[in-house]
Amino acid sequence: MIDRYTLPEIAEIWADENRFSIWLQIEILACEAQHELGHIPDSALNNIKSKAKFEVQRILEIEEEVKHDVIAFLTNVAEHVGDDARYIHYGMTSSDVLDTALAVQMVQAGELIRGALQELIAVLKDRAQETKHMVMIGRSHGVHAEPITFGIKLAVWYDEMRRQLQRLNDAIANVRVGQISGAVGTYDHISPQVQEYVCNKLGLTSARISTQILQRDRHAHYVNTLALIGASLEKISTEIRHLQRTEVLEASEYFTKGQKGSSAMPHKKNPIISERISGMARLLRGNALAALENVPLWHERDISHSSVERVILPDSTIILYYMLKKTIGLIAHLELYPERMLDNIEMTKGLIFSQAILLALTSKGVSREDAYRLVQRNAMRVWKERIQFQTALEEDHELARKINSEELNEIFNLENRLKHVNYIFKQVGLD
Question: Which residue, among 181, 21, 13, 203, has the nearest Cα to 106 in the 3D structure?
Answer without folding.
Answer: 13
